[in-house]
Write a structure and sequence with these properties.
Length: about 150
Amino acid sequence: MVREIIKEGDEVLRKVCHKVEKFDARLHSLLDDMYETMKKSDGVGLAAPQVGILRRVVVIDVGEGKIELVNPEIVKVSGEQTGQEGCLSCPGKWGNVTRPMKVTVKAQDRFGEEIKIKGTELLARALCHEIDHLDGILFLDKATFEEDKE
Ligand code: CO
């Protein structure tokens, strides 16, 4: 089921999300709905607070298949990249953000099993952006915009 995406300005996007403790049917529907919602809007990532759920849950698909992360944590970063970023909660806004070039993330899958994922370039960027959402951080907080240079 496609859920409504919450837009910038709503306080929900500024909350720190809670850890997931139950890997039940409710979590599975949330993950399924988040993926459907993200795909419908042509996004590459979506975090649970963007659909109003304050849980540490993220879905990502940068064109290499679906990634579901529950309770994700960045455990290693290296390098640097600066590039354009946007967010489904901030329609029409694009800004440059500096992110690590490579990240390693430890998380759990939908069944609670521990997983580790490594990402570079766009995937590294998406991992950082989505995990930021779980702590109430938007890319706008870190971005520089063209008008900033004037
Ligand atoms: Co976003």
